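Quick one: co-fold with AR6.
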Amino acid sequence: MATPGTKKSVLNRIMVQQGDITRLEVDAIVNAANTTLLGGGGVDGAIHRAAGPGLLEACKALGGCPTGEARITKGYDLPARYVIHTVGPVYHGRIRDADLLARCYAESLTLAHENGLSTIAFPAVSCGAYGYPIQAACQIAVDTVAAYLEKYSDIRKVIFILFSEDDARVYRKYLESLAA
Ligand code: AR6
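Sure, here it is.
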């Protein structure tokens, strides 16, 4: 777990941005998918619309993904080269939800590392339709990413991209508390 005083060399590789993940020119954007991987609403719908039909074809071939795991496809018409699809938990307030959400970030970064990708953007997985409170999800996301950036020195940059400025502020505030 990250604690105040998280290494500067790790925090310097974490960025927070407000905006639309489908516009980012990075090695991979992460999709907050569901277990079918066949698309849906929210960020999943936006990514499929922007990537075009090639993405759905590739997802069909994957045959689904359990909660807490991740799969990788190309980015098709997106500016991003790859999409890493992860399935966050539906929030019920259980410890298991936190473990599954942490696994989403860990598995996504492991896939990025295994595929030689160095710039990755995450949305707030589970914080829309799946109901995870943003503050709790932010801490899990940042702590897990910070731990994996220590492990994977080849991952140069992780961007947390939030759709709302309020959510972006939650992330910035938490990162500032770690830098203190
Ligand atoms: N760029 C960045 N963030 C976005 C974008 C975007 N273009 N669009 C939405 N968000 P959600 P979940 C934010 O509901 O909670 C889907 O139907 C949004 O404001 O997309 O993991 C899937 O198929 C929120 O903060 O994902 C699943 O069935 C965050 O992305 C289910 O929803 C995640 O919200 C997954 O639910």
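If it helps, The chain has six helices and six strands.
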